[in-house]
Design brief:
This protein is an alpha+beta fold. It has four domains: about 1-65, Roll (Ubiquitin-like (UB roll)); about 70-240, Threonyl-tRNA Synthetase, Chain A, domain 2 (2-Layer Sandwich); about 255-300 and about 340-530, Bira Bifunctional Protein, Domain 2 (BirA Bifunctional Protein, domain 2, 2-Layer Sandwich), CATH 3.30.930; about 540-645, Anticodon-binding domain (Rossmann fold). Helices cover about 35% and strands about 30% of the residues. It is built from 20 helices and 35 strands. The strands form nine sheets. An eight-stranded mixed beta sheet has the order 18-22-23-30-27-26-24-25. A five-stranded mixed beta sheet has the order 2-1-7-4-5, covered by helices on one side. Helix 4 packs antiparallel against helix 5 and helix 7 packs across helix 15 (about 525-535). It is globular, with a radius of gyration of 30 Å. The chain binds one RNA strand through strand 14, strand 15, helix 7, strand 23 and strand 27.
Length: about 650
RNA sequence: GCCGGCGUAGCUCAGUGGUAGAGCAGUGGAUUCGUAAUCCACAGGUCGAGGGUUCGAAACCCUCCGCCGGCUCCA
């Protein structure tokens, strides 16, 4: 049978033989050897037997994957995880192997052992890993029957592997080996352990077997591997960069927010500078909503417990809610969501079909009980403010409303510097309320709205909320990490439960559809993501301090004060540094505070009645008149500025 | 919640059983300086909380709280 490898050539291969058989032939005609191959959507390594079932029986067309291709790392890291497992088994023969996949930035292996692995173990293991790599052990693949596999892994006392084999539906399973080590594995792998040119073990932590807390806990060893040392270095630098941008660190340094032990875990205090940013964002948010026909609401933080019975939250959401409180024989409940309140606003009067769509928005603070182990800075908290809205509309308006919401999301994200995102449509889960036909319609409406906007999406099957399907947006920050913020959900359940109606054209009652949406998600999380995205250097319009006036000598203080006041009167947020310190020192401090502009004033500036402007990016503009400065800053002092800059 | 690590001045951290330390920040003083750290002095601590071991505990043991990295979950 013929194997055609794109850009390389045509080769003959006996069906059922691995591509390794033609390795030497290929070596003769290529400069760079592929790591593996792609056949349609599947990856093939050198070890996998090529059967005539691939392609049209006579001919198999493969696309080679080279070390520089992103996908190549998945081959390499999968092998790296096997090497890790081999090293652990050599050092700790009683250890039992769980699973060991390649992941986004590296790989891990879950391993059971009588005691946890510590730093020292990790060093020893890494040393062993490197030895195995240096031996340049070739990998071998074999297909064996399930019975054989069970025999093999029970002789190795690998109970977890036996459990995995039982769940495999095929008659045969594949195993990969290198040296004395053998592992149940689907592949793909590289040719030899020697292909791993750079590897580093990063951390150990506990992980339940198969992610279920009822199962025993294994030790998960994380690591990463590359085809070159330089790439590893680059990756480690990126880790450092991420650490530097950590919003918890920057939040403290820039005095944006605090979470106090004495106040409570997951409860955020906004410090003046952080509160200022938040307020600017909130004001912008409100304006944009007013422009788009939303009406602003304020609702209480607690409500009678019965409300949450009607809404279904006590049945479906109880584990995320703080316990209720009794007062004067009535039970109250801290709110985990804003929706029921908005429903009562809807119900203030008899609604007509002519009124739709009705759009209520609220910056609503909710409280959700999160298990202590999952709290994380601003990104995962127990009290947070959603930029929430509920749109009530007729079925025929749903698609348009969803399109409008998408428009608004995309716009907001752009304003805040996010241009890329992943979109997921979550469909009907197993436990759901309502009519499947209506669900289908809603899912269609969601997809249609995305398609109208030309946005591509992935389907997350069965991941919808019990009351309706949803669209989730995960935004990509400058470091390529994804964060879930925006969510758009179609809801048939609550209108039903609260018996919402409107009067139609024919004077009959109909039930409205509710769209629940949060664009930024929660202000806490969004600000956390913003801090990391900008590394604390906020765009001018939301910088808590926009300008810092620095004097060179005490002589200039009166002039500097005049300049500062002029800038303040023009509406900018100004700080003064008139201390008798050296200019270099003051610049350094302002730089660390990430203030966008420093206005530097000395004798020369005073004499000519001008300023010297230094931006935090290091650019210097001398002899700038105050009028020019103010007009320049006014242009920059608007949310759309960076949008305009980009386009 | 579970597993591991950590908790010392406002911040970053040193201190492994014998009198609580450094740098930065703060305060006072000197200096008047041109685009990323001027010098001197002073002040600052219930060593996360509680209990125990010991002649003696920041350090060793126990319990609790919080934080960090994961597991699971989500805005």
């Amino acid at each position: 049978m013929k194997i055609v490898i794109q850009d390389i050539g045509e080769f003959d291969l006996q069906p059922g033989q691995p591509l390794k058989r033609i390795l030497s032939e290929i070596k003769k005609v290529v400069k760079k050897l592929p790591v593996g191959f792609k056949f349609q959507e599947e990856y093939l390594d050198w070890h996998t037997p090529v059967t005539s079932s691939l392609g049209n029986g006579e001919l198999v067309e493969l696309i080679p994957i080279y070390p520089d291709d992103k996908e190549a790392l998945w081959f390499l890291r999968h092998t790296a995880s096997h090497v890790l497992a081999q090293a652990v088994k050599e050092l700790f023969p009683e250890a039992k192997l769980g699973i060991g996949p390649a992941i986004e930035d590296g790989f891990y292996y879950d391993i059971y052992y009588t005691r946890p692995f510590n730093e020292e173990d990790l060093e020893k293991i890494e040393k062993k890993v490197k030895e195995i790599i240096q031996k340049r052990l070739p990998l071998e693949r074999r297909e064996i029957s399930k019975e054989e596999a069970e025999k093999l892994f029970s002789s190795l006392k690998e109970e977890f592997k036996l459990e995995l084999i039982k769940e495999i539906n095929e008659d045969t399973v594949s195993i990969y080996s290198q040296g004395d080590f053998v592992d149940l594995c689907r592949g793909p792998h590289v040719l030899s352990t020697g292909d791993i040119k750079a590897i580093k073990l990063l951390s150990v932590s506990g992980a339940y077997w198969r992610g279920d807390e009822k199962n025993p806990m294994l030790w998960r060893i994380y690591g990463t591997a590359f085809f070159s040392k330089e790439e590893l270095e680059k990756y480690l630098k990126r880790l450092e960069e991420i650490k530097k941008r950590d919003h918890r660190k920057l939040g403290k340094e820039l005095e944006l927010f605090t979470i106090e032990e004495a106040i409570g875990p997951g409860l955020v205090i906004w410090l003046p500078k952080g509160a200022l940013i938040r307020n600017l964002i909130e004001n912008f948010w409100k304006e944009e909503h007013f422009k788009r026909g939303y009406q602003l609401l304020y609702t209480p933080h607690i409500a009678l417990r019965d409300l949450w019975k009607v809404s279904g939250h006590l049945d479906f959401y109880a584990e995320n809610m703080f316990p209720s409180m009794e007062l004067e024989n009535r039970a109250y409940q801290l709110k985990p969501m804003n929706c029921p309140f908005h429903i009562y606003v809807y119900n203030q009067k008899r609604r007509s079909y002519r009124e739709f769509p009705i759009r209520f928005c609220e910056l609503g603070t909710v409280y959700r009980f999160e298990r202590s182990g999952v709290l994380h800075g601003l990104l995962r908290v127990r009290g947070f403010t959603q930029d929430d809205a509920h749109i009530f509309c007729r079925e025929d308006q749903l698609e348009e409303e969803l399109t409008n919401v998408l428009d608004l999301v995309v716009y907001f994200l752009k304003v805040f510097g996010f241009y890329e995102y992943k979109i997921f449509v979550s469909t009907r889960p197993e436990k759901f309320v309502g009519d499947p036909k209506v669900w289908d319609k809603a899912e269609e409406a969601l997809k249609k709205a995305l398609e109208n906007k030309g946005l591509s999406y992935e389907i997350d099957p069965g991941e919808g909320v019990f009351y309706g399907p949803k669209i989730d947006l995960k935004i990509k920050d400058v470091l390529g990490r994804f964060w879930q913020c925006s969510t758009i959900q179609v809801d048939f359940n609550l209108p039903e439960r609260f018996d919402l109606v409107y009067v139609g054209e024919n004077n009959k009652f109909y039930r409205p559809i509710m769209v629940h949406r949060a664009l930024l998600g929660s202000l806490e999380r969004f600000l956390g993501v913003l801090i990391e995205n900008y590394a604390g250097a906020f765009p001018f319009w939301i910088s808590p301090v926009q300008l810092k006036v620095l004097t060179i000598t005490d002589r200039t203080i009166p002039y500097a004060e005049k300049v500062a006041q002029t800038l303040e009167k023009a509406g900018f947020r100004v700080e003064r540094d008139f201390r008798s310190e050296k200019l270099n020192y003051k610049i350094r401090i302002a730089q660390q505070e990430k203030v966008p502009y420093m206005v530097i004033l000395g004798d020369k500036e005073e004499e000519n009645q001008v300023v010297s402007l230094r931006s935090r990016t290091g650019e210097v503009l001398n002899n700038l008149s105050l009028e020019d400065l103010i007009s320049k800053l006014k242009t920059e002092n608007q949310p759309y500025y960076q949008l305009n800059e980009r386009s």
